[in-house]
Amino acid sequence: MDVYAKRVLLCLVFILNVHAKFTDKEIINLLMTMQRLSLKSFMVATALLWLAGCNKPSFINLTSGNLNQNPSGIYTMQTEINLQDRNIIEGSLQVFAVIGGQEVPMVTDQLNNRIWSCDYKLPAGYDEAAYYFRADYEVNKNGSTRKKEKKSKLQRFSLENRYVGNLAAYRAPVGSEIAVQGRGFTRHDNVRFGGQATQTKYLSENEIRFVVPALPAGVDYPVQLIGGPYGSLDVGDFRIDESSLSVSPQSIEISSGESEVLLFKIDFEAPAGGLPVQVETNVPASVIMPEARIQEGARTANIPIKGGQAGTGNLFIKVPGLKEVTIPIKVL
Length: 332
Hints:
It is a single chain. The chain is mainly β and about 325 residues long. The protein has 4 domains: about 5-55; about 60-160, Immunoglobulin-like (Sandwich); about 165-240, Sandwich (Immunoglobulin-like); about 245-330, Immunoglobulin-like, CATH 2.60.40.10. The chain is about 15% helix and about 45% strand. It contains 3 helices and 28 strands. It has helices spanning about 5-20, 25-35, 40-55; strands spanning about 60, 65-70, 75-80, 95-100, 100-105, 105-110, 115-120, 130-140, 145-150, 155-160, 165, 170-175, 175-185, 190-195, 195, 200-205, 205-210, 220-225, 230-240, 245-250, 250-255, 260-265, 275-280, 285-290, 290-295, 300-305, 310-320, 325-330. The strands form 6 sheets. Strands 2, 4, 5, 8, 9 and 10 form a 6-stranded mixed sheet that branches. A hairpin with a 6-residue loop joins strand 27 (about 310-320) and strand 28 (about 325-330). Helix 1 packs antiparallel against helix 2 and helix 1 packs parallel to helix 3.
């Protein structure tokens, strides 16, 4: 091998020693392979190895750029570290988050020793901060010990003053009142349930409530908080559970031209706009009745049924989110 190849070989040895991803055995195998290459190929391979080692950053920031504001003002900083140095002395590594000139010591995760974290109390009156991570460590090379440090790029985070924390429940029957907790709520907020506006009640900047609308049961619906100029916030998915509808009487027998009163009863107050009651029958010529609706805030509704032509069949009573009820009917 000529003098140029030997120089490149020395460069390769330096590169491989810098990057901890290569073991001594791997270095020897690579060198033996490189000796069989032409100088041009050898230099290309060396450049690729250099790029492979350099592309991986030393710090991967795991801290969100937007943090939910909390009453304590304490926020968790987190980073993943991959120091590409084979000569680090075990136990010498110390990691800090440097925020506003303050060095905050970080500790390793119990399950992953590459992940480091710390808690930082943001001074009162501030809603953002700039910071970077620094790793201090010692290396032993050729019998000599020296100190080294690595710094991350400058990072920033800001506080979100408006966010949704959680729902008090993630499933319930139609008509249930559900609390949404978070921060930054206003009287202009409205909860949309499956794309439909709901009856929403503002309690405070930390809590609002909505009534589960009359929609088919057994389905997961997306819930969003809509707040005018503030845009929308995803709250989560909500499942409507089936509830019961009481109907009285449980069977009807009337003569043609006579009337009977049908009573509908639910276990909750009907939401804004009322609750439609759909009544179908397989003997339409025998049944004469108006459209039915449980009025807003009511729990019951009465509607008259008049006998038409003689016949025997059923009434099928449906309310969104409630179990369908079948009532036998006979017109004499």
